[in-house]
């Protein structure tokens, strides 16, 4: 392993060296922080479509509505990729993400949405409780620090000086893993570590590059949460999971009826947290990780399939190691030019 890694390791070190050098020079020349570059993101910038999960063209989910609960969440082409969110406040259940069936009619009130370069922050308020929901995708342009996952973080606090009992719910369908909803999907739990509950769902037929479609038809969509006593997870019929949460019952057991079509008794990966009592002055938080393992990716320059090892145990650093030297050498001038012209922020 070490021998085959060596050339690209050298290239990596070279790239890092140039990048650090450039940061130092840039920092000296223009001051480390360049607020004018980011002003338009922070000063009430709200794009026509709000990015939620934006990792790559296949793993891409947006909210194309004013409020997160006015519409279903969608792929960039506009097709639904259903993700939902509910919150129970003192036994009254509200939705804050999606307007699909089997979610409560009533939604929390969205009071703010802010879009930053790698984060979207929603704030909801209802019955004296505030929920701040962030979607963070650490897709910084320098691949050394970026990671192809999206974190959903939930921050809950009481804003009326009273105690409230709070529960949270999340689910997503398998729509992000198929090019057509009639395709059969399978799901399973993955033992990544005993500290996490990890579930995955994906196409039963893993045919790489088989379809001609904007959507991917292979790979697996992962949902991972820290295995703490307040959390429960389930892979079952969406309607059942949602009804269980709404009626404050345990989530249904994992559904064994697989493979089955993505839209037949829609299987979903669901997570529920019982946060207990949130007291004034305290913020309770939970988070969830979304990731997509394409298993095989297309290596553009030589048009070759590249096996991804991401998310497999002890393999996290290896894909970078496998990038060929030519790729890095080609990339370097592009990166430097791009950086020199201010990247996207001057677009
Ligand atoms: C996603 O939500 C839309 C809108 O409610 C619905 O038409 C569609 O069937 C849902 N998808 C699945 C796989 O259930
Ligand atoms: C909305 O949220 C952003 C970022 O969290 C914050 O800077 C801004 O003041 C908030 N706006 C309102 C009206 O609460
Ligand atoms: C909230 O609950 C805590 C115990 O969980 C209790 O000590 C406190 O007095 C309660 N506060 C209010 C405002 O009811
Ligand atoms: C998961 O793997 C860990 C070791 O990595 C092991 O200790 C644990 O028992 C496994 N859990 C299950 C449910 O198999």
Automatic annotation (TrEMBL):
Residues 1-27 form the signal peptide. Residues 118-301 form the Glutaminase A N-terminal domain. It comes from the Eukaryota. It comes from Geodia barretti (Barrett's horny sponge). The keyword Signal applies. This is Glutaminase A. The keyword Signal applies. Residues 44-100 form the DUF4964 domain. Keywords: Signal.
């Amino acid at each position: 392993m070490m021998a085959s890694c060596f050339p690209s390791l050298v290239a990596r070190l070279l790239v890092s060296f140039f990048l650090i050098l450039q940061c130092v020079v840039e920092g000296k020349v223009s001051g480390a922080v360049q607020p004018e570059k980011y002003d338009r993101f922070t000063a009430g910038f709200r794009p026509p479509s709000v990015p939620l999960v934006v990792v790559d063209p296949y793993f891409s989910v947006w909210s194309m509505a004013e409020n997160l609960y006015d519409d279903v969440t969608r792929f960039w082409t506009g097709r639904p990729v259903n993700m939902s969110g509910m919150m129970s406040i003192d036994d009254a259940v509200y939705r804050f993400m999606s307007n699909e069936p089997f979610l409560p009619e009533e939604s929390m009130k969205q009071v703010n949405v802010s879009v930053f370069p790698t984060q979207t922050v929603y704030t909801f308020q209802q019955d004296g409780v505030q929920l701040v929901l962030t979607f963070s995708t650490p897709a910084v342009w320098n691949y050394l620090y970026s990671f192809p996952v999206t974190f959903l973080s939930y921050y809950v606090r009481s804003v009326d000086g009273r105690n409230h009992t709070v529960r949270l719910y999340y689910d997503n369908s398998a729509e992000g893993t198929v090019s057509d909803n009639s395709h059969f999907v399978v799901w399973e739990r993955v033992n990544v570590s005993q500290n996490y509950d990890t579930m995955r769902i994906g196409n039963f037929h893993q045919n790489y590059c088989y379809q001609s479609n904007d959507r991917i038809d292979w790979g697996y969509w992962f949902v991972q949460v820290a295995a703490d006593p307040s959390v429960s997870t389930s892979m079952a019929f969406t309607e059942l999971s949602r009804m269980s949460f709404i009626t404050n019952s345990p989530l249904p057991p994992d559904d064994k009826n697989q493979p089955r079509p993505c839209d037949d008794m829609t299987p979903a990966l669901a997570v529920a947290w019982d946060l207990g009592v949130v007291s004034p002055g305290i913020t309770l938080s939970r988070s969830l990780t979304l990731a997509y393992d394409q298993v095989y990716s297309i290596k553009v320059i030589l048009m070759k399939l590249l096996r991804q090892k991401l998310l497999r145990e002890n393999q996290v650093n290896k894909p970078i190691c496998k990038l060929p030297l030519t790729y890095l050498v080609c990339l370097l001038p592009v990166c430097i030019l791009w950086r020199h012209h201010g990247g996207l922020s001057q677009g």
